[in-house]
Write a structure and sequence with these properties.
Radius of gyration: 21 Å
Number of domains: 3
CATH superfamily of the largest domain: AICAR transformylase, duplication domain
Strand content: 15-25%
Distance between the termini: 28 Å
CATH architecture of the largest domain: 3-Layer(aba) Sandwich
Strand order of the largest sheet: 3-8-7-6-4-5
Largest sheet: 6 strands, mixed
Shape: globular
Number of helices: 14
CATH topology of the largest domain: Cytidine Deaminase, domain 2
Length: 392
Amino acid sequence: MKELELKYGCNPNQKPSRIYMEEGELPIKVLNGKPGYINFLDAFNGWQLVRELDRATGLAAATSFKHVSPAGAAVGQPLSEVEKKIYWVDDMDIEFSPIANAYARARGADRMSSFGDFISLSRTCDVATAKIIAREVSDGVIAPGYEPEALEILKGKKKGGYAVIEIDPDYEPKEIERKEVFGITFEQGRNELVIDDDFFSNIVTKNKELTDQAKIDLAISMITLKYTQSNSVCYVKDGQAIGIGAGQQSRIHCTRLAGQKADNWWLRQSKQVLSLPFKDDIRRADRDNAIDLYIGEEYMDVLKDGAWENIFTEKPAVFTAEEKRAWLDQMSGVTLGSDAFFPFGDNIERAHKSGVKYVAEPGGSIRDDNVIATADKYDMVMAFTGLRLFHH
């Protein structure tokens, strides 16, 4: 297949629309459904991300994409019992394979942003992964292969219209890439930068001790940023992104946005949230929305009389600011990556509030000394990579 006609482009009024190859065949097969223009943008960006994560770590990888940026990304390290609970998979009678673990983590980190996601998997989609996908609101998935039973499960989603794409894992694009904006063609060399252990060898802080897990998390952070709309920063812990801030004009706003998402991930593991008395018939999306409100500043939206009765069997106590801060102070060992240099130490100050211990950024700011000094104040380990990772 050399080209594939699409229903429309980014919006319904943008017609005609297609994807095609100038030379050779498309490296994909659509096994089910009718993926759209944005679906393919998410699929191809996500596939690059998970393929690179798998190569860098040797672990199965998954990402959950929304609007051409990842909402979550992870490798297939085992899930703890608490993680299974906060990702809503603790009730599943399945054997959690590495790729299933990877997707549960990628989807679970920021469930609000992942609602209606497009999924990318670095390895064959097995039955366990398909069963997790089947219960989530999602637009489609791309993977290098599907077990027959897994494919049948996925075909049952969205009344048979769920988009399932198989990609040739051996496909390699040309070294030069092009796109048009306003009728004008842009051309550049593909970003083929390899991110490995050597990428983090220039440690500029007093503390230079990188653990093996920190090296994996740094790779996840920087590879995720490589496919995230800039400006972007990414918080990672124990093999998964826990907070991604994308497309912000100011880096400190990006750091705050991603930091708040990381904080929410940790707050969801508190006893106050784990013990929330949800009604049995509440939908998963409504449960996610309720938790997001409960741990945020607008908690009375779910706790006021006339509201809580629709969600809970009894009225929960307020999760006070003091209680939240005390719980957040227990978060540690977090990694933070930035796609360009931090211009001020305020980014490090904000990162510290979310338990950041390891940092990777390009360096090159005229205030690098201030940024390094701030990291040293909190005994962080910070590497200057020397290379920017903008993605637009």
